[in-house]
Known about the structure:
By secondary structure, this protein is α/β, with parallel strands linked by helices. It contains twelve helices and nine strands. The strands form two sheets. It has a six-stranded parallel sheet, sandwiched between helices. Helix 1 packs across helix 11 (264-274), helix 5 packs across helix 12 (278-300) and helix 11 packs across helix 12 (278-300). The protein starts with a helix and ends with a helix. Zinc ion is lined by residues 138, 140-141, 143, 169, 171-172, 174.
Amino acid sequence: xxxxxxxxxxxxxxxxxxxxxxxxxxxxxxxxxxxxxxxxxxxxxxxxxxxxxxxxxxxxxxxxxxxxxxxxxxxxxxxxxxxxxxxxxxxxxxxxxxxxxxxxxxxxxxxxxxxxxxxxxxxxxxxxxxxxxxxxxxxxxxxxxxxxxxxxxxxxxxxxxxxxxxxxxxxxxxxxxxxxxxxxxxxxxxxxxxxxxxxxxxxxxxxxxxxxxxxxxxxxxxxxxxxxxxxxxxxxxxxxxxxxxxxxxxxxxxxxxxxxxxxxxxxxxxxxxxxxxxxxxxxxxxxxxxxxxxxxxxxxxxx
Length: 303
Ligand code: OAD
Ligand code: ZN
């Protein structure tokens, strides 16, 4: 059941509690409307569509040992997801609006598409829990490489689709991989350190401040990210925006939890409207998209 009424309750809560801050915990579902498939949705998810690459199992695409044997599936996926090809969604801009209004505490994202940055959200607010394409290293000797090394190789592969030559380390000939967290690898220390700080901060806040955690567009299946929402103190309101109910919201709900089951851009629209931020959201989207268009045009001109 889609509960628009829960968005109205959330809006009332935000309006009534001007000191309340919001922590977002988000996943691939916030970027599907930008044209980036999520991972686990039946039929449209990346893991379903990767079956054509004959992987032993879908998640092998993010497995270091498999990548060493066969980097092609990861290259194929990287080409689809590479930053710069997509624009942020309404939901990304809603998060930016929370920042502009002074109501944002943090965004924990599992996404590697960097659309939070593209939406103009300041980096100090964003924790990219599963890394990003913004830096590269050799998987054998750990030598760091600039962003261009992987990006240029990817572009080359695009032109000569059958010639799969991979970015290799000049020191040891190991494969170069962007700092995206693969299965079995540690999440960045920044993720753990910031969450410890934010949790301590949440626990130390007065109950009357009525802070909020919004979980959005994630199936909450990949740990440790999936455990964050369970650690949130009980005086903090938890909200889920997702097509289906997931995590604690399905299996261990709290009486104070709110849930909207539906599309995220619709949720963003309704929430902005209820908060009387509708015009601000439209303006923000227009301005930021104009800036992105100019940047893209300049890039195309090679300036
Ligand atoms: P999933 O694909 O597992 O989950 C996406 C969730 O978003 C699902 O519950 C969808 O129903 C929901 N969803 C999709 N589109 C939506 C929309 N427009 N509105 C509302 N809900 C929508 O993606 P994640 O939970 O992000 O790892 O996946 C977690 C990790 O698994 C990823 O970070 C990735 C993958 O292995 C790495 O990239 C390293
Ligand atoms: Zn090396």
